């Protein structure tokens, strides 16, 4: 797409003099670049990796191709924070220089062991456009942020019998005195699955077998498996590819699922009670979770989609991570709430209260990075509509069809369009009673909508004109509204 990307499989060590500076300069003043969402200075970001709380700080790594907005040679970029909100860019943590990772250091997670942070990742090896292999690798970060690749690398060489070269994205955790690793895998019959390894020391790994679930034939590949325990429930999160759209679900090219049930590591089974889509927006993929020092289960996702071109590509950068979200399991629902630390970014508070009675109200705004906390009460109406990014030419619509228990978001009305082949509406089921609560974070080109305390979440990218900042609410019936609006400051 650009002369700067002459070879998509080169590392940052091979950058020409001034090349990265030029790329950073090209993307620096892009008004679509978020100010409090983790994003790349240039090039392409995808999955969050190695999420951890280590030595008194939060660490976030992410998949990064430095030289342009394409999926080329993936590095692990690194940012750290004391408060989950203000991020400092660190040196690149993993640069794929070895034969066992010749085509990229792919995704994986991190665990703390003996005062070190162990970073597990997949060494991606490509022989041709269709032939590939995968090695599971380990890198070790010390308290001084230096990273060394393990001398035992690859800690798992190649893929087990019965699977294609699509085996990746280690999720490692410790249970008792053993370590376990889940990997997303494609069976030779081209269906997706998860396989399990076991280790006494997190270095020497033995293949245990495939995790049996009732989802035998569910897409052609499962990426980025994650396993958590919340409120006594086992939850498996993964990103299946090749699932057909169905009602409100699976409308994106690829989607993210969580399965609630019971994991049995001896029998290698995960008994599924039910599955659900994790986020109903246009741009959410490959999330990862971790536990912090106050035992919160936190999650970041990638706000982007593979194989889709985005309007910011022309400025030589692509994608961002979601905000950190705290997960909880309440009343059989997996809830996602933006972490409370985000409140420290607030300034310029505006409170607006009133009643809607078959009319509309405009909320004054000229900011491009802000938060809205909205409470609707005494709702006596069949619908509520919110318009964000509103101007003469543009609008992002959130529409509650209360009678039909559904909410729709629509991003058709933007001048810069993208991913249109996947439609411009997303939706979810919601039973609106008398009250409704919304928390909305807008950061230039990303909008995250948390409904009813994170019961339903929509994450989407939009690329508005800088002047499209209007906010409008309307309803055909009656309701009371109480809206807090905060301008949000830079965090990265
Ligand atoms: C998910 C994914 C992972 C892989 C990484 C490569 O978006 O495809 O399966 O490890 O991205 O960048």
Automatic annotation (TrEMBL):
Q: Which GO terms describe its cellular component?
A: cytoplasm
* Chief localisation class: cytoplasm
GO molecular function terms noted in the UniProt entry: beta-fructofuranosidase activity
Task: From the Swiss-Prot or TrEMBL record, state where the protein is found.
Answer: Cytoplasm
Q: Which reaction does it catalyse?
A: Hydrolysis of terminal non-reducing beta-D-fructofuranoside residues in beta-D-fructofuranosides
For this protein, the Enzyme Commission number is: 3.2.1.26
Instruction: Quote the pathway field.
Output: Glycan biosynthesis; sucrose metabolism
Name the GO terms of the biological process aspect.
Answer: carbohydrate metabolic process
The UniProt record lists the Glycosyl hydrolase family 32 C-terminal domain at 341-478
Which superkingdom does the taxonomy of this entry point to? Bacteria
What keywords tag this UniProt record? Carbohydrate metabolism, Cytoplasm, Glycosidase, Hydrolase
Question: Glycosyl hydrolase family 32 N-terminal domain spans which residues?
Answer: 37-338
Member of which family?
A: Belongs to the glycosyl hydrolase 32 family.
Q: What does this protein do?
A: Enables the bacterium to metabolize sucrose as a sole carbon source.
Q: What is this protein called?
A: Sucrose-6-phosphate hydrolase
- Species per Swiss-Prot/TrEMBL record: Clostridium polyendosporum
């Amino acid at each position: 797409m650009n002369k700067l990307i002459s070879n998509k499989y080169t590392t940052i060590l091979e950058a020409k003099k001034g090349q990265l500076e030029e790329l950073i300069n090209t993307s620096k003043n892009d008004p679509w670049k978020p100010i409090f969402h983790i994003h790349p200075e240039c090039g392409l970001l995808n999955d969050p990796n190695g999420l951890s709380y280590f030595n008194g700080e939060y660490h976030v790594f992410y998949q990064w191709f430095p030289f342009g907005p394409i999926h080329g040679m993936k590095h692990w970029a690194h940012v750290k924070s004391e408060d989950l909100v203000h991020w400092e860019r660190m040196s690149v943590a993993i640069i794929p220089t070895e034969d066992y990772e010749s085509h990229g250091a792919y995704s994986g997670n991190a665990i703390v062991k003996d005062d070190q942070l162990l970073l597990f990742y997949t060494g991606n090896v490509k022989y041709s456009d269709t032939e590939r292999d995968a090695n599971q690798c380990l890198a070790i970060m010390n308290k001084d942020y230096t990273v060394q690749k393990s001398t035992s690398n690859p800690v798992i060489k190649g893929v087990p019998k019965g699977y294609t070269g699509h085996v990746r994205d280690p999720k490692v955790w410790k249970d008792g005195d053993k370590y376990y690793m889940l990997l997303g895998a494609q069976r030779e019959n081209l269906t997706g699955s998860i396989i399990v390894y076991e280790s006494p020391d997190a270095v020497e790994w033995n293949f245990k077998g495939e995790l049996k679930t009732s989802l035998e034939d569910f897409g052609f590949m499962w990426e980025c498996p994650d396993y958590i325990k919340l409120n006594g429930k086992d939850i498996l999160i993964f990103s299946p590819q090749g699932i057909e759209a169905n009602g409100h679900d699976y409308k994106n090219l690829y989607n993210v699922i969580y399965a609630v049930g019971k994991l049995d590591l001896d029998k290698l089974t995960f008994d599924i009670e039910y599955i659900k889509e994790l986020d109903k927006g246009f741009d959410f993929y490959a999330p990862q979770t971790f536990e912090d020092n106050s035992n919160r289960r936190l999650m970041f996702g990638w706000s982007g989609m593979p194989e889709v071109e985005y309007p910011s590509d022309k400025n030589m950068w692509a994608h961002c991570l979601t905000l950190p979200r705290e997960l909880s399991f309440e009343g059989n629902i997996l809830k996602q709430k933006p972490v409370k630390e985000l409140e420290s970014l607030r300034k310029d508070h505006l409170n607006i209260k009133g009643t809607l009675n078959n009319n509309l109200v405009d909320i004054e705004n000229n900011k491009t990075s802000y938060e809205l906390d909205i409470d609707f009460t005494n709702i006596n109406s069949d619908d509520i509509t919110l318009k964000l990014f509103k101007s003469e030419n543009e609008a992002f619509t959130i529409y509650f069809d209360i009678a039909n228990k559904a909410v729709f978001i629509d991003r058709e009305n933007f001048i810069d369009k993208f991913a249109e082949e996947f439609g411009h509406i997303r939706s979810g089921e919601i039973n609106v009673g008398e009250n409704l609560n919304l928390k909305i974070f807008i950061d230039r080109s990303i909008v995250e909508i948390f409904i009813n305390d994170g019961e339903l979440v929509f994450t989407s990218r939009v690329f508005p004109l800088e002047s499209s900042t209007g906010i409008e609410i309307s309803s055909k019936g009656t309701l009371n509204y109480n809206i807090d609006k905060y301008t949000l400051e830079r965090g990265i």
